[in-house]
Specification:
By secondary structure, the protein is of the alpha/beta class. The protein is built from 16 helices and 20 strands.
Length: 415
Amino acid sequence: MNQKLVLTILGSGGGVAKSVLAILDKAFQDTNDPIHSYISQIDLHLVDKKQKDKSYYEQFIPHVGFTLHQMDLGNLNRFRQHLKDTHTTMVIDVSWADTVEMLQCCDELGVQYINTALENTMVDEKEELEGFTLLERYRIFEENRIRFRGTKAIIGSGMNPGVVQWMALKMMQQVPDELPIGCYIVEHDDTFYADLSKVKKKTVYTTWSPECFLDEAILNYPMFMKQHMAMFLYNDVYELEFKVALGDKQFNGCLMPHEEVVTLGKAFDMEFGFIYRVNDYTTNVILDNLSNANDLWNWNHQVLDPLDGELNGSDLVGVLLVYKDKERYMYNVMSNKEIFAEYKTNATYFQVACGIYGALSTLLLDDIPDGIYYVDELLLQTDSGYGQYLTYYMKHFVTGENDKSDGLLLDRLRK
């Protein structure tokens, strides 16, 4: 008999959470879903600092009951009490709360934990860390993770980080005798409003948290990993563009710091980087304001939500493995119109939710040892069925090979 799943979702009012709820609703209805037996009797708790009303959530999860809670997760005693009072067995954290603090509370009470990114508000508030905030969040997490021995946790299990590590390892394992010299996480997200009259001046538009996007795009230096070490280019992220070719799909993107680049770069001795291109409107806004980029923090910030207006375009996320004389690639691309028709969310958030679903299924179904795992560690150190689970909702992948190589990062730099 399955242990009853008592699930608390932190940051329930955000974009990732509504995509997770939409998947849980499907899992509740689909008897073939790998975790249907758990979701069919789930006790679901939704936590947010500024809680939305019940009717908002019923758009995404009409078939499953839930309880709403409003609390500031900075109040750790209150959070601990919530975990005890509700008998929570699993936390999905898609909030901006401090990762180490949330995990510490879960570890004390034996509650399993999943998140999509490393969060630390103290790092965000220290001006002297500007340029290196991601690496500092990683350093603090690494210093603390060895303390946590009372639970199982999967850290950074969205799309990227998350699904992309599964893609990279899957591609490497297909040709185990031939190690790449480089591996790039690549993303081309051309999502934008179908009706351009919806565009307002002095507004930054992104498909996920604009504040987190700007942290990568204007606050940090371009970063990559080489010989297990983080390397930085002393440039603005948007000063430099790097070429990506995935068969007939080609684009130029910017080099941005990302969790999966660090964790994969620690695990393998090759060059890793994340090359990212967003919609042309936002790209041009940043390029036009490079000399005064900090002003963008004071602009309006808007998530491209299909409930606000029809969205064109899609989000392509994948991996490009580079060899001396060829390249191999794997990617997923999701159309905003198709995802909205079925899940009422945008493609980017749905991709992230697929990674969360993979982690949730792993913790419910697989017998993995207690421990704190990044997705690459989970795949390398355990017999997790992570890939099998996430592909229940993320079904379509394109794989292929380029018969020549554009080389390592500096060879790809657009002159």
